[in-house]
Amino acid sequence: MLVSADLRKPRIHNFFGLRNDLGLANLLADGAVLAQAARDPGIPNLRVISAGFMPNDPAAMLGGAHAARFVESLRETADFILIDSPPVLAVADASILAPIADGTIFVFDPERSSRSAMVQSRHQLENAGARIVGIVYNNYDPGQNDDGAGRGSGRRSSRPVGDREPTEGAATPSWPRTETPASSR
Question: Can you name the CATH fold of 2-87?
Answer without folding.
Answer: Rossmann fold (3.40.50)
